[in-house]
Task: inverse folding
């Protein structure tokens, strides 16, 4: 059975700019392109790709939250 909980955290103002570094994004794209072309990734490469996808998704969610918070702050002023 899954549980839901809330986490309260302070979000830096510049969080909306957080992205994967260019070299890391390039590596992730290369792994995904190889996989999409039918090439089998090694176990290590699959784990690396999954970790990078998870990180990219987390950063995307944090950016979205930061934009919402920033927008809400501007509305209150």
Result:
């Amino acid at each position: 059975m899954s549980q839901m909980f809330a986490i309260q955290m302070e979000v830096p103002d510049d969080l909306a700019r957080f992205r994967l570094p260019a070299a890391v994004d390039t590596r992730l794209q290369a792994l995904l392109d190889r996989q999409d072309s039918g090439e089998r990734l090694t176990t290590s490469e699959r784990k690396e790709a999954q970790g990078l996808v998870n990180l990219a998704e987390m950063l995307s969610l944090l950016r979205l939250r930061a934009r919402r918070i920033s927008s809400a702050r501007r509305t209150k002023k």
Notes: DSSP finds two helices and no strands in the chain.
